[in-house]
Specification:
Length: 480
């Protein structure tokens, strides 16, 4: 049976529109029912990806020449669906305890449109489709970041994200314009072939590529484009921060993987990526050392992990990049899931986690697993993620990157284990037990199991992605 290529994304878009209509016309309906319906529907679409994916063409033609359904695209569609499902569970916890007067139906529906944008972006192989899908993601975030209109911090975060994101969009459009002016093309495969010709203006093409990289640097929180991250992460509603941390980063890196083939054919691109990687590693880890607010610490941690992912970009290792993104999804969403529940009772500072092991052993253990995985302790997904990244750096003779990466991992042990010390060693006068809903408990348990499982047996991720195709394709570009 033939399958229309963007069928999965259309299903997600229709789901979001239907839920918004339900929210509008069924005024008396408990709006949390919308979240439960969204979780069940997205889980159904996730299951469908295993049945529909084999029938999708690897490369659509004609009208759909901007779209691909290769293993990388299918993998990141599942990534987006899993992320959105977990974030919706967090939103249920957040709104259950929050005193803010949210428009709950819209709050639960908007992440679905973000998910659709992420899914389209995973398949985008044309600058026009990349721009449209990126804007679908970004506009949803504009609303979500500043959603709590009565919280000045949320409004401030929304304004900062709006202004700086609009600026990065300008860089993206201007860069695409320069590349189109040089080649007359927007399709990435055709641009790669055009860059192989010696009669094009390489200086103009390089300038356009630099502008595109600036825009992507904003999305992945790479230095020096990371200035928005701490304030936006702290001010946004915590579930939105989790979605922004994982979704925006995944979106930026999947596009970066797509554009590497043509861009690495331009002069000095490899050196530029190397410099950005080193600066991102150093800034993210060093800035996190003195931080006492857990949301801001996770913001600086996000910058640091962007640096580790950029090592995989410099080394052209698609396998390491994608495995690290999966590990990052698991441990980051787990840490935010615990933070949401604890912050509703106490606060977001690390000191608010004092004695958590006594008040809620389950939440303390969940945060422990998240922190040690983020730090890279063996037998966790985070350890294998860093191992594959550093092994790739050594294999490609990037010894400076490997050395800086190992040193900064030591910094990570310090600031991640501050949270563990607060939970298990520091005493607290708070004695109230913390209630955890059954849905949240099941979700966190699944994340913990996945972190340990991938820390012992990482092969399922590699089989799902078939990542060697990516790495070989990228490396073949640099040897032409």
């Amino acid at each position: 049976m033939s399958i229309w290529p963007p069928q999965l994304e259309i299903a997600v878009l229709v789901l979001g529109a239907v839920l918004l209509l339900i929210e509008m016309f069924f005024v008396s309906l408990d709006k949390r029912a919308i979240a439960y319906a969204a979780i069940a529907s997205l889980a159904t679409i996730l299951v469908a990806t295993w049945y529909l994916a084999p029938a999708l063409p690897a490369q659509a033609t004609g009208l759909w020449s901007f779209y691909t359904a290769d293993p990388l695209a299918i993998f990141f569609k599942r990534f987006a669906l899993v992320t959105t499902i977990i974030v919706l569970v967090m939103m249920l916890d957040y709104t259950r305890r929050s005193t803010s007067s949210f428009a709950l139906g819209e709050f639960f529906a908007l992440p679905i449109f973000t998910c659709a944008g992420l899914m389209y972006m995973a398949s985008a192989i044309d600058f026009v489709s990349i721009f449209v899908s990126l804007e679908l993601v970004t506009i949803s975030f504009y609303v979500l970041v500043g959603f709590d209109r009565k919280d000045p911090a949320s409004l401030e975060a929304g304004v900062k994200y709006l202004v700086l994101s609009a600026l990065s969009t300008g860089f993206l459009v201007y860069g695409i314009t320069w590349i189109f002016g040089v080649t007359g093309l927007t399709n990435l495969n055709q641009i790669t072939a055009a860059f192989e010709k010696i009669d094009i203006d390489k200086n103009a093409a390089t300038f356009g590529a630099l502008l595109v990289l600036v825009a992507l640097g904003f999305k992945i929180a790479a230095v020096p484009f990371q200035i928005w991250v701490p304030d936006v992460y702290q001010g946004a509603p915590t579930p939105v921060t989790a979605l922004l941390s994982v979704g925006s980063k995944a979106a930026g890196f999947v596009v970066l993987i797509r554009v590497l083939r043509p861009f690495l054919m331009l002069p000095h691109m490899d050196r530029l990526l190397l410099i950005i990687t080193i600066l991102t590693l150093l800034y993210g880890n060093l800035a996190a050392l003195p931080e006492g607010n857990l949301k801001r610490l996770l913001a600086y941690s996000s910058i640091a992990h962007a640096g580790y992912l950029l090592i995989g970009i410099v080394c052209l290792d698609g396998a390491a990049i994608t495995f690290y993104l999966v590990a990052y999804l698991l441990m980051t969403l787990l840490s935010f899931a615990v933070l949401i529940i604890v912050a509703q009772q106490t606060g977001e500072s690390i000191s608010d986690f004092d004695g958590l092991a006594t008040r809620s052993p389950f939440l303390a253990f969940a945060m422990l697993m998240a922190m040690i995985s983020l730090a890279g302790v063996p037998f966790t997904a985070g350890f294998f993620g860093k191992f594959f990244i550093f092994a790739s750096a050594i294999a490609q003779h990037q010894f400076a990157l490997a050395f800086i990466g190992v040193v900064t991992v030591g910094c990570g042990f310090y600031y991640y284990l501050k949270v563990v010390r607060a939970m298990y060693w520091n005493s607290s006068d708070k004695i109230d037990n913390i209630h955890v809903s059954m849905l949240s408990r099941v979700t966190m348990t699944a994340l913990i199991i996945a972190i340990v499982w991938l820390g012992i047996y990482p092969q399922p991720i590699f089989r799902a992605l078939e990542p060697t195709r990516i790495s070989v394709a990228l490396r073949s570009t640099t040897t032409r």
